[in-house]
Amino acid sequence: MQLLFKQRFFSWFDSYDIFDETGAVAFTVKGKLSWGHCLEIYDRTGFHVGTVKEEVLTFLPRFALYQQGQYLGQIKKEFTFFRPSYTLDCNGWQVNGDLFAWDYTVTDPAGNLIMQASKQLFQWTDTYVIDVVNPADALLSLMIVLAIDAANCSQGN
Q1: How many angstroms separate the Cα of 92 from the Cα of each of 95, 109, 136?
Q2: Which family does it belong to (predicted)?
Q3: Range from 35-44, 82-91, 130-139 carrying the lowest mean pLDDT
Q4: Which residues contact 136 (CB under 8 A, 6 or more apart)?
Q5: In a domain, 85, yes or no
Q6: 120 confidence band (pLDDT: 50, 70, 90)
Q7: d(CA 114, CA 94)
Q8: Looking at the 3D structure of the chain, how many domains does it have?
Q9: What single DSSP character describes residue 52?
Q10: What are the tens digits of pLDDT across the range 60-87?
């Protein structure tokens, strides 16, 4: 399954439309006024399915992930000098990023690919292509990409 993550051009808060491979809206993401980033995710019918909430007063960005109000885990940025690194404490998955914080893969404990995300360069707004192996992992994969994008935004990248 492929998702296209595209930030809206005119928006006071973080707002994104997430399209599936047919071009239909699969998810809508709306930012809420709060301390730190708080992103609410809605499915194509408008039902609230997930939340990515930044935990404030931390040295490096950290985000809690919720699916329909149920805490799934967190993703946090690690202190590194060159390659950005994130720790994910959900499902045993591991996040691996490239040098410029534009491309990421997520693997399970056995090393199997869960998803791959690539930032599209030379776009007016933040745009990512997310390839998800199992469509059941689409929502959590989207939450991971949203958290990484928000972390990069928080640190001015």
Answers
A1: 10, 6, 16
A2: Belongs to the LOR family.
A3: 82-91
A4: none
A5: no
A6: confident
A7: 9
A8: 1
A9: E
A10: 888 999 999 999 999 988 777 766 778 8
Tell me phi and psi for residue 129, to 5 degrees.
-105, 125
The pair of three-digit structure tokens given for residue 87, joined into one six-digit string:
């720790």
Range of the domain at 148: 2-74+116-154
What are the residues facing 61 on neighbouring strands? Answer: none
Give the DSSP per-residue string, 91-120: TT-EEEE-TTS-EEEEE-TT--EEEEEEEP
Tell me the CB-side half-sphere exposure of residue 133, using CA atoms within 13 A: 9
pLDDT at residue 157, rounded to an integer:
46
- Contact of 76 with 61, CB cutoff 8 Å: yes
Tokens of 29: 């993401």
Q: Is residue 95 part of a domain?
A: no
Q: Are 61 and 150 in contact (CB under 8 A)?
A: yes
Tell me the C-alpha distance between 124 and 144, whole Å: 22
Q: Is residue 31 part of a domain?
A: yes
Cα 87 to Cα 25, 44, 57, 62, 94, distances in angstroms: 29, 30, 18, 9, 7
